[in-house]
Design a protein that fits this description.
The protein has one domain: NADP-dependent oxidoreductase domain (TIM Barrel). 36% of the residues lie in helices and 13% in strands. It contains 11 helices and 9 strands. The strands form 2 sheets. It has a 7-stranded parallel sheet with strand order 3-4-5-6-7-8-9. Strands 1-2 form a two-stranded antiparallel ribbon. The relative contact order is 0.15. NADP nicotinamide-adenine-dinucleotide phosphate binds next to α9. It holds the Pfam family Aldo_ket_red.
């Protein structure tokens, strides 16, 4: 696998998102044994960046990864996140230094490791100055508990303020063929500062792969039921972009998932998508994107796909996004 750079952290340019192994996407249920095989296959194929969070489950996704990484911990760059769960008794987001100090010890214990390679704030806590949050994280680096700092769904002002306190290795936010709002302002600032970018939900939560053709396929427990892009009306409109992607993929001779990922990879060597899957066959398919080359004409057509309708999160969660 070709390599990419997140600040001074080198990783395989395709990572693996582990969230769906324990939470959020319930089509087909959860199968820990297949999830563990998926992590092992990923490592065999050169994936190094593995992404989780304390809130996935909550907690059980980190525990699952500990089982999957037994004897292989040194082969991966392990990323987890704090901030959606308060450890100080507050309601809502909590990135106070006291909450972070408790959160990190919990993640280390569940992950059965002595350090986290990349530790992200999951969402900006408007009640805690970002300088205080990053200051606490810098102390964790000094203590050897974490190696690099990341932020998620933050705006330009927060990125600059945070980076002034301690270098930020990566920003992780939603970015895909149907969520493009990182392009205008965020990516140029990250490049100016030498910060890498990790697109989450790079397959549009599975939608872009064309594998979900009707929102009636989603069980009530599936997170996507509450995502406006999957609502009646929006879903049918959005099928146009999945169909356009399929037509281009047929020409390329690759699958829609591979072309969606190759389009992101073509944006630069500082971009590391983390497609999520809990199945070996899909992991193998997704890693195949490393070998897909798109022509300038194909990239331009992909840039011009019919835009999605509907917010990329439910309204309450959109309010947590810092712009
Ligand atoms: N920072 C944040 O706030 C944030 C938010 C969301 C996600 N994330 C991270 O980003 C990772 C990836 O995002 P995501 O999981 O939300 O969305 P995604 O990667 O866009 O899509 C995942 C979905 O697509 C399906 N899928 C994967 N490969 C496929 C293929 N080749 N063909 C057909 N379907 C395929 C998966 O199903 P199966 O699993 O059944 O294969 C799953 O339902 C997460 O795992 C998580 O670690 C972070």
């Amino acid at each position: 696998m070709k390599q990419a750079q997140l600040g001074d952290l080198q990783v395989g340019r395709l990572g693996l998102g582990a969230m769906g192994m324990s939470a959020a996407y319930s089509i087909g249920g959860f199968d820990d044994a297949e999830s563990i095989r998926t992590v092992h296959r990923a490592i065999d194929l050169g994936v190094t960046l593995i992404d989780t969070a304390e809130v996935y489950g909550p907690f059980v996704n980190e525990e699952l990864l500990a089982r999957a990484l037994e004897g292989r911990r040194d082969q991966v760059v392990l990323a987890t996140k704090f901030g959606l769960i308060s450890h100080t008794g507050r309601d809502g987001l909590d990135s106070s230094p006291a909450s972070i100090r408790t959160a990190v010890d919990g993640s280390l214990k569940r992950l059965e490791t002595d350090h986290i390679d990349l530790y992200y704030q999951h969402r900006l806590d408007r009640g805690t100055p970002i300088e205080d949050t990053v200051g606490a994280l810098a102390e964790l680096i000094a203590a050897g508990k974490i190696r690099h700092i990341g932020l998620s769904e933050v705006g330009v002002d927060t990125i600059r303020r945070a980076h002034a306190v301690h270098p930020i290795a990566a920003v992780q936010s939603e970015y895909s063929l149907w969520t493009r709002d990182q392009e205008a302002e965020i990516l140029p600032v990250l490049r100016e500062l030498g910060i890498g970018f990790v697109p989450y939900s790079p397959l549009g939560r599975g939608f872009l792969t064309g594998s979900i053709r009707s929102n009636a396929e989603l069980p009530d427990t599936d997170y996507r039921k509450s995502n406006p892009r999957f609502f009646d009306g929006n879903f049918e409109h959005n099928l146009r972009s999945a169909d356009e992607l399929r037509a281009i993929s047929d020409e390329v001779g690759a699958t829609p998932a591979q072309v969606a990922l190759a389009w992101l990879l073509a944006k630069g060597p500082d971009i590391v998508p983390i497609p999520g899957t809990k199945r070996v066959a899909r992991l193998e398919e997704n890693v195949g994107a490393d070998a897909v080359e798109l022509s300038p004409e194909q990239l331009a057509r992909l840039d011009g796909l019919t835009p999605a309708v509907g917010g990329h999160h439910a309204e309450a969660q959109m309010a947590w996004i810092d712009r």
